[in-house]
């Protein structure tokens, strides 16, 4: 047979699988039986392969066959290719069946402690081979890292750009005022924002959405807040308040864990500042099987 075939680039994996099986069993009929296809089908597939490569792969001597020199060369390469493909298929099946995988999740500190230990625990119990890496940052950085692809999914303070992100909301509440128990406002039932004009504030850092939200609401109320401390940890902020270093505004969920013997927690009114939390992921980026399952799993638990 002349060497004028179309070449190796036109060979597909099924042809190689059939060729390897014929070579292993030294028989077209046995190979066809093991592959659950007819002998004419496998004979035609091997003939097409020979045409495409431009070389005979088997000597046909009656009912017996043996590899040609070209067949010997192809067998070595084909076995490696078929084994690699079968390994890849197995890996992909494992991913589809959620036997393995990896998910990168961004969480603001005050959200992670409140909502996710139980969710992550249940997910790990169901999918023990899927690893989760948590990145704890402010909501603004989490949103940016999801957008750039550093994270698969993230939890942020809503709203977000719905043209850029898919999302679902799982918690909505209001900010509460935290003051030391010795503060002049400690015994009041509610406090308007304008009443805080002369106070010193302890805020989250600038990479936290609440930093800008609180400053914006203060300006709307007619004053620029006096910021004396900034932190990335809500428990440190609460301890600063308890020590009399300033006041703070934190979500209701966080306030439930405060030491009421040292901190007074008061509803904030006029305006009541909403705090809505959601999980986001990019609209135009591929999500792994594990990440998609995590979204569905978390959504099912958090939206209950």
TrEMBL record:
Annotated Pfam families: HTH_1, LysR_substrate
Cellular component aspect of the GO annotation: cytosol
Entry's Gene Ontology molecular function annotations: DNA binding; DNA-binding transcription factor activity
Keyword Zinc applies: no
Keywords per UniProt: DNA-binding, Transcription, Transcription regulation
Sequence ranges assigned to domain HTH lysR-type in this UniProt record: 11-68
UniProt keyword annotation of Transcription regulation present: yes
PANTHER family: HTH-TYPE TRANSCRIPTIONAL REGULATOR YBHD (PTHR30419), NITROGEN ASSIMILATION TRANSCRIPTIONAL ACTIVATOR-RELATED (PTHR30419:SF8)
Family listed: Belongs to the LysR transcriptional regulatory family.
Descriptive protein name: LysR family transcriptional regulator
